[in-house]
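Final report, section 2: Outcomes. Of the targets proposed, Transposase is the one most frequently requested by collaborating groups, and we therefore present its record in full.
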Amino acid sequence: WYNKIILKREVLIMPRKPTSLTLNEGDYEYLRSLIKQRTIQAQVVIRAHILLDRCKGTPIRTIAKIYDISPSTVQLCIKKYMDGGTKSALFDAQRQGRPVEITDDAVAWIIDIACQRPADLGYAQELWTLKNLHQHIQTHAVEAGYPRLETITKPMVQKILKNSDIK
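The predicted structure is given below as tokens.
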């Protein structure tokens, strides 16, 4: 609970400034209702408890011990509340994620090929099998302007067709 400040080989011990947290009535009621819900994520419930406990004056280390988390996690939750409000403290922000490798144009090209009859493209069969469609996509991807599709997998083709409701 104390910060150590070293000045000219002397150690001064100063009490830490407590981080007080006050919730308005709306936030308090919202947090109370969240912790009673059964379908909410456990981490959201813990974060709501953190804010409520800190509002009651419970020390950060005590809160951390109660919920078996680190004090820095408690401090982060409180900081997010102070910086961005209740929603910011409770719910994780959307992350950027992995960049899209297969563009919407490439997906549209795959769907266009899948909707054509193989016979119209010079094949003997009347309907596409996943194997034949996959081979056709890989073979003609570069000339169609989609070099990434040269290495597309069968499960990915299947996923694209499923998401597009193509049977």
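The radius of gyration is 28 Å.
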